[in-house]
Amino acid sequence: MENKVNQSFYQSLSEEHRELQDKAKRFSEEILMPYELQCEENNGLPAEELSTINKAVLDWELNAINHSKEDGGQGLTIFEQMLVNEQLGKVTNAIWDTVFQPAYPMRDGTKQQKEEYLIPTNLGKRRDAYAITEENAGSDPKQCMTRADKIDGGFKINGEKWFVTVGDVADYLLVHAHVDGDPNKATVFFIEKDLPGVKVKRTPLYTHNFVYEHPEFIFEDVIVDDNKILGEIGEGYELTKDWFVEARLGIAARCVGAAIRATDVANTFASERKQFGTSIRDFQAIEFMLADMAMEIMAAKSMLYRVCWDLSESNNRKLNHALAAAVKLFCSEMVGRVCDKAVQILAGRGYMRENPVERLWRDVRVDRIWEGTSEIQRVIIGGQIKKRGLDIYVN
Ligand SMILES: Cc1cc2nc3c(=O)[nH]c(=O)nc-3n(C[C@H](O)[C@H](O)[C@H](O)COP(=O)(O)OP(=O)(O)OC[C@H]3O[C@@H](n4cnc5c(N)ncnc54)[C@H](O)[C@@H]3O)c2cc1C
Fold first, then answer.
1. HSE of 261, CA atoms in CB hemisphere, 13 A
2. Whole-angstrom Cα distance, residue 302 to residue 252?
3. What's the CATH code, domain 128-234?
4. N- to C-terminal Cα distance for the chain?
5. Which residues are 92's β-sheet partners?
6. With respect to CATH, is domain 237-394 assigned 1.20.140.10?
7. Residue 173's pLDDT is what?
8. 190 has which bridge partners?
9. Where exactly does CATH 2.40.110.10 map onto the chain?
10. Which residues, given as ranges, of the chain have pLDDT below 50?
């Protein structure tokens, strides 16, 4: 069925942006969606399938859309990245994560770090994972206990990291640690996973059946050279903030895509399903749910497109951080409500794992938790209002 809601946003795009969006849509539908049920049943995909997808990502030139062409990426603007991520968000089981977007702060690496890490990662030869969270450092990363003690020519790292997404297939981690245990010296280190002292503690199961795992890592007297610091000592939180801005906008875009797919499925079902001798869409209870879903997507998408457009034009890091928090909060809460209604419209069938609305409903729950919970986004927005006034949000 033709997607009328998408159509009007689509028509306001430039020719070049429409082509990009079409490409991402075709990639999601033709390359990624066929793996959804296999991924659901096995809580992941075998190495062979992952390698086929990796090749396709490169063939379709969707690798490292968030990094410069000079560094081997596609050099897309924030707005263009959003167009791609919106389409990828329609895919269940987080198979979108195979379309690798290496951690943005690596663009601040040295020439040597770019050659060793960023460029091969952008070209699909290596994989990174970002490790901040710990048992007692979740919303409050300053409670980080992972420490990097200065030794001759390098550092000795000890600590533990939780929930490391892609930690199973990554070959190196970007690890947030406090130098000499000092919270004012928060620093990001490149740590190769095969270094002595790097161990996987356990790999918990989660609500979703994600294409990759989120293992917990232990670091025991791991020795790294001085040149494994990303940026400077003490720059850890600033670098991580950059990562949050990008990751939060990516989440928001995927949430909009997920909501559109769930609504599309529910809308089709509402026409086809008959009870009491008529299509269930003729019941106002169902029609009103569809109306609310469409309205919520329209609101979220308007916000997402406008902010991503503005951020593509501006380079104000603090403003970006303030706006990204609001977009992530709104879109992630919106998709939860929309997917819940989609399940309700499909009823028994919506509760079957073989149905994409059921998988999306489970998949999107984490979007209100990771890269800062909804409460933390509200803390950021509240703090920004207090500091700068309401203008950045309302005028
Ligand atoms: C599937 C998954 C993948 C993840 N991937 C990664 C990853 O790749 N790398 C990584 O580093 N981390 C990752 N995380 C961790 C994630 O970012 C944290 O779970 C998140 O930041 C919240 O931390 P927490 O779970 O410790 O909750 P807590 O911080 O313990 O929060 C518990 C509750 O208290 C609330 N709360 C806390 N502080 C405040 C406050 N100031 N005001 C109001 N309410 C507050 C929270 O909102 C929440 O409701 C992942 C998590 C999940 C579930």
1. 25
2. 12
3. 2.40.110.10
4. 38
5. none
6. yes
7. 98
8. 174
9. 128-234
10. 1, 5
Cα–ligand 1 centroid distance for 247 (angstroms): 14
Residue whose CA lies nearest to ligand 1 atom number 17: 370
Task: Measure the CA dihedral 76/82/84/87, to 10°.
Answer: 180
Return residue ranges of the chain for CATH 1.10.540.10: 4-108
353 sits in which H/E element: none
pLDDT of res. 9: 86
Atom of ligand 1 nearest to the CA of 132: 11
Provide CATH 1.20.140.10 ranges for the chain: 237-394
CA–CA distance, 149 with 163 (Å, rounded to integer): 24
Task: Quote the pLDDT of residue 10.
Answer: 84
CA distance 215 to 259: 28
Tell whether ligand 1 has an atom less than 6 A from the beta carbon of residue 132.
Answer: yes
Q: What is the DSSP letter of 281?
A: G
- 4-108, which class in CATH? mainly alpha
CB neighbourhood size of 335 (10 A):
31
**What is the per-residue pLDDT across 300-332, written as a single tens digit (0 to 9) for each?**
999 999 999 999 888 787 888 999 999 999 999
The best mutation among 43, 166, 367, 370 to test binding of ligand 1, ranked by most ligand atoms within 8 Å of the C-beta, falls on: 370
pLDDT at 63: 98
- Residue 62 burial (10 A CB sphere; 0-12, 13-18, 19+): buried
Alpha helix positions (H), 273-373: 284-313, 317-346, 356-363
Selection from 193, 195, 317, 177 nearest residue 233 by Cα: 177
Q: How far is the CA of 244 from the centre of ligand 1 (A)?
A: 13
Cα 41 to ligand 1 centroid, rounded to whole Å? 27
Please report which residue ranges of 15-133 form alpha helices under DSSP H: 15-26, 36-42, 47-59, 78-88, 111-113, 119-122
Q: Give the per-residue pLDDT at 7.
A: 59
With a 6 A CB cut-off, is 135 part of the ligand 1 pocket?
A: no
Q: Ligand 1: does its nearest atom lie under 6 Å from the Cβ of 130?
A: yes
Q: Which residues pair with 161 in a beta bridge?
A: 217
Query: Do the beta carbons of residue 311 and residue 323 sit within 8 Å?
Result: yes
Q: Which amino acid is at 152?
A: D
